[in-house]
Amino acid sequence: MDTTPFWDALPPRAREALRDAGAPVVIRPGAFLMREHTRASQVFVLRAGAVKVWADRDGETAILDVLGPGDLVGEVEAADGGVRHANAEALTRVEALVLPAARFRRVLDAHPGAVWAVAAVLAERLRDSEELRLAHFPDAPERRLAGRLLRLVARFGAPVKEERPDGVTEAKPDAEDGGVEVRVPLSQQDLGRWAGMGRRKVAQILAAEPVRGGLTVARGSIVVRSVDALHRLAGHDAD
């Protein structure tokens, strides 16, 4: 399912108002934008980089999402004033606009059309939660994993490239068939934590048809040689 990032969904004047109201920040890999169980009242609009949203549940890590350029962090707490329900940790170098929740709400009040962009973000979160719950009845780990990988492709995917003998970098021929690279440092264990399964199950799925040979999870990047195969695994109907 394709979704429009928060920033792209904003009316132009609301974008300009947020630029004026926010402060640009650069966040190093491994640093936290927010921590769960706190009441820090800031909202981040991501401009570059990847952010892992995760929660600690009895010592186990549950990954809730991986956000990218144009996405919003902290919108739930800005809306209800509650404590943070999860951690937001920079996976890569992140560039963002940051502003206090109260100031963020004032921008929305001044630009009513912007509220729909926030509503779309909240609707996506709800839809994702419902999809994950439904995938457990009956249990469909392949579908859950494929859905997470497709989300990474949509947010961070770029055509697979190779360097020619003359030093020029260009897209590989198979990139025309849907081959993409996701340069985000997520391991098989991370993918399992996001899709609700163990690392061993992730490895089994990647080694079985129809994924076998079509996807590589390496240090710092994921290469998907056939996005169509992921769509089939996710149970999406062919166009």
From TrEMBL:
- Indicate the segments forming the Cyclic nucleotide-binding domain, all copies: 6-108
Against Gene3D superfamilies, the record matches this protein to: Jelly Rolls, Winged helix-like DNA-binding domain superfamily/Winged helix DNA-binding domain
A GO cellular component entry from the record: cytosol
Record's CDD domains? CAP_ED
Gene Ontology molecular functions: DNA binding; DNA-binding transcription factor activity
Q: Which Pfam families match?
A: cNMP_binding, HTH_Crp_2
| Entries under PROSITE patterns matching the protein | CNMP_BINDING_3
Does the keyword Nucleotidyltransferase belong to this entry?
Answer: no
Question: According to the lineage, what is the superkingdom?
Answer: Bacteria
Q: Which UniProt keywords apply?
A: DNA-binding, Transcription, Transcription regulation
Descriptive protein name: Crp/Fnr family transcriptional regulator
